[in-house]
Amino acid sequence: MREKGCSEEEILSLLSIRKEKDTPYSRILSSMCTLPHPIAVKAHQMFISTNLGDPGLFCGTAELERMLIERLGTLLGEPGAGGYATSGGTESNIQALRIASKLKNSKRPNVVMPDSAHFSFEKACDMLGLEVRSVPLDRELRMDADRAADLIDDDTVCMVAIAGTTEYGMVDPIGELSRIAAERDIFLHVDAAFGGLVLPFLENAPKFDFSLAGVSSISLDPHKMGMSTIPSGCLLVREPEVLELLNIQTPYLTVRQGYTLSGTRSGAPVAAALAVLDHLGCEGMRAMVRGCMKNTRRLIEGMETFGFPSPVQPDTNVATFQCKNAPTGWKVSWTRQGHMRIVCMPHVDRSVIEAFLKDVSGKGPGE
Ligand code: 0PR
To answer: Could you report the per-residue pLDDT of 171-215, keeping only the tens digit for each?
Structure first.
């Protein structure tokens, strides 16, 4: 660290030089994050110094967190759901598995999850000493429910299903998995980190939420399709009491106990997430999601015309292609099966899609 501080001008110059090295969102087709909505930025700035780690000091911010959980619980079919704001899908998934493990005391606990599960579950299982039982996917890249049922035994503490897979945007057969979970008394965690703010706003979307009796908990990330600021995730549980299983004593805080994984937690992304949901309302969210799905279909149709078919028709706005090379300047990602993957987030608007397709066709700039 330098001995004498330097001017604000110098600092801002140092920062902007680095910022220019970042890829602009207009070229990022691989991310599940997006540009935050302007109302999210305003809300974030207002709450930038708040700490939900000591909620008694920030009662108003804590109220916003409760409002956010209530809005999302209602959206997901259970207005009385419990939950809290996490740093994202990883923390929510870890906490869900902690709850499930504590609910069922097993000496050799295992978790049944699809091959498509996000790598955060690998971290969670490693931390918690849980055996991973991977369920193969069917031809449409959804978890095979029969195979899942076969893998469940007396030591299964949790079954995981995905609503909007990271790589292919698919939704597992959660109705069927919910029936199996209820029948066999297994905790069912739905990872809707991505799809949780897509599916409720789509027509004819498959059911995935608390309206299915067997669903015990849900991860949902406002910093993905909620256009909130980073880091913004939420864990929701059907029965609020199960959160208390994670309680530890916090003697010198304004509250005596806490169940969150993080200690210090910014209230800024919480305010931002709530601001976007209330500002857009269901109507605005529907329009945003409809636009993303329309762009996804346009991209798939365009790529097919150029001879790059999609391996699946996605349930959400994640498009994948049998295509080996991306045109220069674009940031796409690749699935484990080697497909090109493009997430049609709100910043990937129609003009971005058309510019990308133009470059794929070889008629773009630089050709
Ligand atoms: N569950 C699902 C279904 C996810 O897709 C993700 C992340 C997580 C959980 C974990 O969420 P957090 O990263 O918030 O903890 N999915 C994206 C992915 O791995 C995250 C991402 C975002 C990656 C932007 C790259 C990127 O540029 O693809």
So the answer is: 999 999 999 999 999 999 999 999 999 999 999 999 999 999 999
Angstrom distance (rounded) from CA 193 to CA 219: 5
Q: Which atom of ligand 1 is nearest to the CA of 164?
A: 3
The alpha carbon of 4 and the centre of ligand 1 are apart by a number of angstroms equal to 40
**Omega of the bond prior to 231 within 30 degrees of 0, cis?**
yes
Domains and CATH numbers, the chain: 22-35+281-360 (3.90.1150.10), 38-277 (3.40.640.10)
Q: What is the DSSP letter of 28?
A: B
Q: What is the pLDDT of residues 125-152, one digit of tens each?
A: 999 999 999 999 999 999 999 999 999 9
Q: Kindly list the protein residues whose Cβ atom lies closer than 6 A to any atom of ligand 1.
A: 30-33, 88-90, 93, 118, 120, 162, 166, 191, 193-194, 221, 233
Q: How far apart are CA 102 and CA 124, in angstroms?
A: 14
- This prediction has a pTM of 0.97
